[in-house]
Amino acid sequence: MKRARIIYNPTAGREVFRKHLAEVLEKLENAGYETSAHATTREGDATVAARDAVRRGFDVIIAAGGDGTLNEVVAGIGHFDKRPKIGLIPMGTTNDFARALRIPREIDDAVDIICQGDSIPVDVGLMNDRYFINIAGGGRMTELTYEVPSRLKTVIGQLAYYLKGIEMLPSIHSSHLRIEYDGNVFDEEAMMFLIGLTNSVGGFEKLAPDSSINDGYFTLLILKKCNIAEFIRVVTLASRGEHMDDPLVISAKAEKIVVTSKNEVLLNLDGEYGGVLPATFQNLYQHVEMFVPLEKLRPQDQVKKIQ
Ligand SMILES: Nc1ncnc2c1ncn2[C@@H]1O[C@H](COP(=O)(O)OP(=O)(O)OP(=O)(O)O)[C@@H](O)[C@H]1O
Description:
Layout (H helix, E strand, L loop, with lengths): L1 E7 L12 H10 L2 E7 L5 H11 L4 E6 L1 H11 L7 E6 L5 H5 L6 H10 L2 E9 L2 E3 L2 E5 L4 H4 L2 H7 L2 H10 L6 E7 L2 E13 L21 E7 L3 H12 L9 E6 L1 E5 L5 E4 L2 E5 L2 E13 L16
Adenosine-5'-triphosphate binds next to helix 3 and helix 7.
């Protein structure tokens, strides 16, 4: 019998996962998994619990929480040579990663996907020595996501980002950025840069429309220096996925990106504070294996499943 370890964040999102734990355990047992669960107690605990699960030989780790919990689980298993497969039960507010992988928000449906057993390899990002699964970025604008108070985020979800964005508009300014990406160099003032692994960020599902979750490449987006009116124009275009051809936007695919600045530029990693530049971003090709609804994935993400 295979063994699964559920790592859940009891404080994530709106729903209380614990209330559903018995039925989730039963479903997994019926699907042939001997399952146990760990409730995280603080920030970073999912990383410790995931590391522990690898050492104890679990075949599968199921992250029940938001992107933050999944990020911590990936950080916990990332350094090991033999990594358990990951299942995801989206319990967060934005659940960007689950959205990109077409994993449904309903607990029951998400568990069904794990029980069905289809899985694909997924790329993971490494910034200096920290893992990310969805997006990294820097510049005044990306500070938004961690300035949104978490209680506000839980109550009104992604709307909080937009509200905070409007409030912060007057304070948006450019920074000097030197970005080396696979042999190319950008060295100018810019508003922000984003390094994406998936196509879904902060509710913007078409931010990196042609990204694939397992091709070994990041999508790099740079927004050049502009005024507030231009900035609003590009963000509006981005909400519709129509920003890629805008003259203020540089986009590229890259495996390795090195970013430095003459200014102090704060970084954002999967929606959390990620330190300051300089930073080296490395795409770890197909580093984790995740359970997904294979038939619902976009064609470019449907890598032949590994048995
Ligand atoms: N018991 C706990 N008390 C407080 N914080 C916790 C606890 N367990 C985990 N955390 C922290 O909560 C953070 C956010 O959790 P998570 O991402 O699961 O939910 P979310 O913020 O609601 O969702 P999303 O990231 O999708 O918006 C995690 O990064 C984790 O460090």
